């Protein structure tokens, strides 16, 4: 894992170099993760080109995309943008605006054990929306959130992972902070590719190192300021135990990440392609 320097991004890193269980390594310039791309400078865009990025996987909700407005990569032919919200939402997107609406899909056997999915108010389709009811409840609240992505929006999770696996060049995955929705997607991709679980947890937890910078950046944006106001930085930390609880649920309930994803439509061909993408 390597931190990447950008003018506008504070939580960007290349997961290349992460060890695999068979003694190999994830290849560099295949999967990059970051916070949101709304303020990219011309130099930042050139940096993306230099890294070989061709595909952008944007996990923000339709509400976030609409509220933030067009980004600097919209309508640039050299980048393909894949937008897949992980939140249950019923948000009207204006004509010509990027993004999509969606409601909960088939959980494919990932069953709810807590509150049912519901239509969300605009404030609830932002990250960190307080006591959001989770479709799947485990002891760790963040792990509950990550598991609920799979139960509530399985089609989005699958599409995001396939966008990584089938990207022409490097795929960059981002949301707002680049730590929860992004962290879930990257962890799943790495596990499918056979990464060492301790290294996956370490990569997830690394976002805490940049949390003050992440929050300062988001608090400066009207879309997120009210939602974040008054919350301590510690409430946003990416704690190792959260990712271990998420991956532990997959192992204990389904026998691992791959069979868990198989319940919602992931295929052996998808796994083979992800391994080619991330390992060569």
TrEMBL record:
Residues 155-202 form the Tyrosine specific protein phosphatases domain. Pfam families: Y_phosphatase3. GO terms for molecular function: phosphoprotein phosphatase activity. InterPro entries: Prot-tyrosine_phosphatase-like, Tyr/Ser_Pase_IphP-type, Tyr_Pase_AS, Tyr_Pase_dom. This is Protein-tyrosine-phosphatase.
